[in-house]
Design brief:
The protein is an all-alpha fold. It has 29 helices and no strands. The protein starts with 15 loop residues before the first helix and ends with a helix. The N terminus is likely disordered.
Length: 641
């Protein structure tokens, strides 16, 4: 098959009019998104971004944050480096983080338009310049992406997409050089470099490999100089596609039990997750085509789990619909425009193949669409090409309709940004859109407690506890509910009856608490003495009755004991704190934080032998390079004593 582009002249610079259109669309995006910088910190923002200390005075700790993050298998050092550099040179708190995210989103919009421009031009799509700009704007200004852009920690997904797009564009330029008869392995070098950086931003960037292979097989068609097929490229591409599919299928078959076993901490099985995701991915697609902004946002823990194909009944229809998509996709491979459409659909599905399949992750998050949704826009471009290549007359009306669609999406996105720019509006929006969401009810309870409305706060706390029974939700225990109510009383500076503390953990004494974050929130309030009316000593005594027992291994997770040690340290009750630190280390051996806690408490209690034993362990770990800069500095303080 002869490629549509055979001359290097076809790859000349874009005209000024097209660049002006792109510039106007970017300004529109900036104008729409900028109010979002006033929005609040959210969920993981607090644990991944706001925990970074003042690095201007202690820059040596920067590497600890960059390489110490454990949120992904590869550490996500590139993403963490962006947060560290922001803290060192911008330091505007969560507002500064949102500013950077907005700028990064605009840059990604430029790359999406650039990618579309190159691909549509090569495929000889009529009106490709305007089409690329408008479809890129559809992606840039779609309301489904607001929850990614204005949720600072999701810079990880945005950075991964940034480098994946750079890798895709680099791949196209390498291929165009082959088509133009200018081979050179060095031209391909940016592709693996950008891929590695993308992987260090977020691991699901690995999906770029099959995306590029399918781009080659379905769009570029292994074309070389003079339109001839490049045999080695065809063999390599098909070989990698087939071998990759065989390897993945083999891993699934061999490791099925292992993968299923990783769901022991979830309220759903791997099979249930796969069935549920069949519905969720359809929901993502429908939200893209027909946005329902009322239920867009952070919280989707009210999504109904698929227990089997018939529960709920929509599960079987979702699965059958995916089978139909596969059949239609195979049939479309006979036509050129059909292959382009299939490529867009495959981009979308491959983009979801990591986070929406066999990993024991939560079920539904909108930010998972940031990269995959580019495929849906590509599929729309394929439909446009199929129509205007056969009937050129509708080209202008279709482009006008696409422009109108961009404006309508902009209005929806603008309304979403306004909501995300105000904490109270965001809480109300999440609760209205997801009244059965445990997280949305918890947020509302906390907000009401801040306003001093303790009874209303407790009502929403109860609703959250009832909603948490949803398998897609938090799965709270009664003790978590009781702890949250104590925290709400603390926030509202309302008195807590002694009987309320005495009743803690009595309903489920074997394992009263499961939520580390709920307990930590209360411990931090007590540590800061935020509620002087609260009986901190009585609360600590009750927890000691529950947890300072011989059979403690199944009472709670390791981090629960860590939080309890922090509480006792605040009360300067080092005996109890030491006992909790020991339990923490039994459940999490050689945990550096636990060892340093034990060293602190042993020193405070004058337990010389215990302190020396911990110091010896930490020194061994230091020699093995297992301590961060901050941990080495802390250890040095004890060695000086």
């Amino acid at each position: 098959m002869k490629p549509a582009v055979t001359s290097a002249a076809r790859f000349s610079a874009p005209p000024a009019g097209a660049l002006l259109l792109v510039a106007l669309l970017l300004l529109l995006g900036l104008w729409i998104y900028w109010p979002g910088i006033q929005g609040p910190a959210l969920l993981d923002d607090r644990s991944s971004v706001l925990v970074i200390d003042d690095l201007k005075n202690r820059p040596e700790l920067a590497f600890d944050y960059i390489f110490g993050d454990k949120s992904g298998a590869l550490g996500r050092s590139v993403s963490m480096a962006s947060f560290v550099l922001e803290r060192m040179f911008l330091d505007e708190g969560i507002s500064g983080g949102k500013k950077i995210n907005i700028v990064l989103h605009l840059l990604n919009g430029v790359l999406v338009i650039w990618l579309f421009w190159l691909l549509f031009r090569y495929l000889d799509v009529p009106g490709y310049r305007v089409l690329a700009a408008l479809l890129g704007a559809v992606w840039l200004l779609h309301p489904l992406l607001v929850s990614t852009v204005l949720y600072v920690v999701q810079r990880m997904a945005m950075l991964a997409t940034f480098f994946m797009l750079l890798a895709s564009i680099s791949y196209l330029y390498w291929r165009f050089s082959l088509i133009a008869g200018r081979p050179g392995a060095w031209r391909f070098l940016p592709v693996p470099v950008f891929l590695v950086i993308a992987l260090l931003s977020k691991e699901n960037a690995i999906v770029l490999v099959p995306v590029l292979l399918l781009m080659e097989a379905l769009c570029l068609r292994f074309a070389g100089d003079q339109g001839e097929v490049i045999p080695w490229l065809r063999k390599l591409s098909y070989g990698l596609i087939v071998s990759g599919a065989v390897v993945l299928l083999s891993i699934l078959l061999i490791k099925w039990d292992f993968l299923a076993g990783r769901f022991h901490g979830r309220a759903f099985s791997m099979e249930e997750r796969l069935l549920t995701e069949a519905r969720i991915v359809w929901d993502y697609a429908f939200q893209w085509v027909y946005p329902g902004v009322a239920r867009m946002g952070l919280y989707h823990d009210d999504f109904v789990l698929s227990r089997n194909l018939l529960e709920p009944a929509s599960t079987v229809f979702a699965v059958l619909a995916w089978i139909l998509v596969a059949i239609v996709g195979v049939a479309l491979l006979r036509w050129q425009a059909g292959r382009w459409f299939v490529f867009g659909a495959c981009w979308f599905l491959l983009g979801h193949s990591v986070e929406s399949t066999v990993l024991p992750l939560e079920l539904y998050f909108e930010h998972r669409n940031y990269f995959p949704s580019i495929g849906l826009v590509l599929a729309a471009g394929a439909l446009f090409a199929a129509i205007v290549k056969k009937w050129p007359e509708p080209k202008a009306p279709l482009l006008v309709c696409t422009g109108v669609g961009v404006l309508l999406l902009s209005l929806l996105t603008s309304s979403q940004v306004q909501i995300w720019s105000n904490r109270s509006l965001l809480l109300l929006s999440q609760l209205n859109g997801h009244p059965e969401s445990a997280r949305a009810n918890i947020d509302m309870a906390t907000e009401l407690a801040r306003l001093g409305q303790i009874e209303a706060a407790r009502n929403y706390s109860k609703r959250a506890y009832e909603a948490s029974a949803n398998p897609a939700g938090l799965q709270e225990r009664s003790g978590d509910y009781e702890i949250r109510n104590l925290a709400l009383s603390c926030i509202a500076d309302s008195g807590v009856p002694v009987a309320q503390i005495d009743e803690l953990g009595r309903e489920d004494p074997d394992r009263p608490f499961s939520s580390v974050t709920t307990l930590l929130a209360l411990v931090r309030l007590l540590q800061d003495d935020s509620c002087p009316q609260f009986d901190r000593t009585g609360f600590a005594d009750r927890l000691a009755e529950i947890f300072l027992v011989e059979d403690f291994r199944h009472k709670a997770s390791a981090n629960i004991y860590s939080n309890l040690a922090v509480l006792e340290n605040a009360l300067q009750r080092y005996d109890n704190a030491y006992a909790y630190a020991e339990r923490f280390l039994v459940l999490s051996p050689y945990n550096t934080r636990g060892l340093l806690m034990k060293l602190h408490f042993a020193t405070a209690l004058g337990k010389v032998e215990s302190a020396q034993s911990v110091i010896a362990t930490l020194q061994d770990m230091e020699e093995q390079g297992k301590l961060t800069v901050g941990e080495r500095q802390t250890l040095a303080l004890y060695l000086e004593q």
